[in-house]
Amino acid sequence: MKELLRIRAFVLVWAGQFASGLGGMFATFLEGWLVYELTGSKLAMGALHTAYLVPLLTVQLLVGPFLDRWDLRKVMIASEWIRAVAYLFPAVMLTWGWLEPWHLFVSAVFTGITEPLFRPATMAYVPAIVPKEKLIKANSLLEGTMSFALLIGPPAAGLLLVWWDPQYILYLLVSLMGTAGLVLWFLPCREGERATVQPVSWFRQFREGAAFFKTAPVLLGTGLLILLGNMSFSATNPMFLPYVTDVLNGSSFQVGLLFSTYSLGILAGSMFMGWIPEPKRKKNYILGANLIMGSCLGLLSVAYWYPLALLLAVVSGFFGIWFNILNSTLYQRMVPEQLRGRVFALRLLMAQGGMPIGAMFGGVIAESWGVMPLFAIAGSMVVTVTIIAWFLPVFAKLNQEWEAPNEQAVS
């Protein structure tokens, strides 16, 4: 880890991601809470998540293929500062006593417009500043930092709701997003081919990124697993609030604590992955972790005891992060530098393609049948598909060496 902390650009990405993650977690918790307070509707909570996801996917589809030709530093900065403005709007409305549900939906739409660029830009930027043999540790540190932000964010937001009026928390969000953009401002610009290659059409950029998946079908396979996992998460995540408050008769602090316990598991899993040697049989780690994560989600359907829900959340987070870290490293190593922006953008698009469907169906199922059947359905889907994947030949390639064709030296 000490070697990573000597890389100034990595430290700046690390700090910026922490501020961004903390602000994003505050926003997710607070906006969901406000919508539920204003409407009392589980369907409205699912619709809020959909209002965020639809523009996210649209922007990802239209803009993602051009990432390799843009200054990734400016993309990350713009994403954070536009999100700051998006949170400022409901803060002002709430201050004046004019807040209505549609104001929160507008904020979610603008957040969805900018958020999809930050993650792929970061993932494409990191391999250019970190030696390839340090990527797993770098990803572990970044994921661990995000997990720490997720860990402290929800209970802090829950406690602040007890002590502060919600508009003050929204203003805090604006400050966190602004700070993240300011930190990223000091990153060095990596021009690469962006300064020398003539502009080409969106279709050609998209086709070049998509064509790479034909040469590495294991990337497509793991991407589809992410799609299903994110769809299940998108269906269930907004329902943790009514699950705790209505089913378990908990408080806002207990809602935040449940989110944080999941993040505590992610933090512990990130530290574990950064500490152990790189695993040789990566298939067991990747698919096994996904299987355990889906099982924990399904078991929530019978968890009527709050401590059991906390235990399932921490176990799910611990193993879920193994999948994310190793999958990100798989892409970073196998994708050539000149294609990383496009491929990571398409990976994110593929992974998030089912999230609006999950959010809407999650709201409908929870409204009609309750949140417990929703947990059972979502968990069963993840477990079933992961078991099928275990016996497919393409996933055996997870145990082979991860090397990019025509690999370039890392600067």
Automatic annotation (TrEMBL):
One Pfam family named in its UniProt record: MFS_3
Record's keyword annotation contains Phosphoprotein: no
Primary location class: membrane
SUPFAM superfamilies to which the protein is assigned, alphabetical: MFS general substrate transporter (SSF103473)
Subcellular location: Cell membrane
Recorded topology in the membrane: Multi-pass membrane protein
Keyword field: Cell membrane, Membrane, Transmembrane, Transmembrane helix, Transport
Source organism: Desmospora profundinema
PROSITE patterns membership: MFS
Domain Major facilitator superfamily (MFS) profile: 218-411
Name of protein: MFS family permease
Bilayer-crossing regions: 7-30, 50-68, 141-163, 169-189, 210-233, 253-273, 285-306, 312-331, 343-365, 371-392
